[in-house]
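pasting for ref. prot 1 ->
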Amino acid sequence: MSGLYGLTRPLLFALDAEKAHGATIQLLKAARYWPAGSDDPRLAVDAFGLHFANPLGMGAGFDKHAEIPDSLLRIGFGFTEIGTVTPLPQSGNPQPRLFRLTQDMGVINRFGFNSEGHRAVYKRLAARIGKKGIVGVNIGTNKDAADRGDDYVAGISTFADCASYFTINVSSPNTPGLRDLQQAQVLDDLLARVLEARDIAAGRAGRKPVLLKIAPDLTLADLDDVVRVSRQRQIDGMIVANTTVTRPAYLRSPERAQSGGLSGKPLFELSTTMLAETFKRVENQFPLIGAGGIHDAQSTIDKIEAGASLLQLYSAIVFEGPALIGKIKKGLLDHMQSNTISSISAMTGVRAHEWPRKRI
């Protein structure tokens, strides 16, 4: 697959970014038939009651409609997360809405939760019930929902028997008002309803972990509230962080002026600082998934040492291709060997207090 990506990359980059993404999905469908590889046991992570063969996951937004979860697992990810999925189909924002910042190894998107809806996505995931591999479901709300809490509850109920875990997405910047759900009182009510739905569904489908995905643009006071509510409600974990609406001054790509959420390498400093601040506040009550700006082995190590038990990639795969997965794993193992580290958990959070409070 790495060789194939090398051959097709010039063609993909000649296409509009969203069309190239669709073509990549089609190419990756072939990988579902490949033999599964194995990972060094030192890369294994136990979190949320699940066993991950390695800590690298594909972040939500890549496989929005659950078309290729098994292909992503076959090419080396330890888990994958599909979605965001909304109850009813919706087209999202007008195109163009996806932009490569090639000079900066970044991406800006303003998709707006384009989704085929619960019914179509459930049909695909139900077909793989009983298969190995951790596949999370990222759930969201329709843009015109009368009660957004109802949409999240519907997502829990619909996918309870085929999701390895759930992610509650209240942090996309591309659905008007969505980030308001991170406000303490609103978030408390939402998590109460979601967790009640999870517990009801557990009777027929088993208890599934529920994670909360937060924005990197929260103030530290806002973060205090989010972590306090999350701890009180005893969620299973958090993903830190989604895309940012800020724009670093050093961006060079012409597309930097586009509106939407920025991801990729330019997000690394902000998201990792937010990760470290979250780790300090959580006090080991639940694990964190670090997302935002991972682009090589060193940035992966930095995320883990800032507080991540697991990690999610997306934008870097656009620029580097699937070969990046193996490079990161090798870099992690080399680091562990050189420093006599026996497990990922032994690295988690060891440098969280060294991260400065920049740009928050």
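and prot 2 ->
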Amino acid sequence: YALGVFPMAEGRDDPTVHWVDPRLRGVIPLDGFHMSRSLAKVIRQGRFSVTTDRDFAGVVQGCADRPETWINDEIFNLYKSLQAMGRAHSLEVWQEGQLVGGVYGVTLGAAFFGESMFSRATDASKLALAYLVHRLRAGGFTLFDTQFLTPHLASLGAVEISRAAYHKRLKAALQAQAQFNPPGYQP
């Protein structure tokens, strides 16, 4: 991650892991997250609860629970190891006691490398990102790497930047410190 690359597998059953360094990189500017009125209304309704690092394995499994996935057993185990070292974190979205959405990623310095997210309920992934962006800002993060730009992420304010621009932002973020769970933080 410090070199600007991230791991992937070709599929669930592929035992190998390769490194990816995209020409264009997706990022969410932490001051540019787009909160729609409908998402703000969902948050105010309080239908969901949000936790962090409560069910990391459940979030990774939720992200892999799709017909095609880049998360193989090796990657799953490596992320669990990173989580045990305090380098990987999850944000979980719950509804009526059920895990219905979430996002997980890796932290280094003031950079958060978003790996994947999932949703089993309408708006759960958007809500997860809204809470995550708020948490990252409160914790002093300066870079939120989404790896690729998808239409879903673009609708929330994500943009693509060049590899060179990404590496410049990454270098600065690695020289700073941030906390995923800052003391006294209230979402």
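The first helix runs from residue 37 to 45.
Helices lie at 37-45, 56-64, 73-84, 124-138, 151-155, 163-174.
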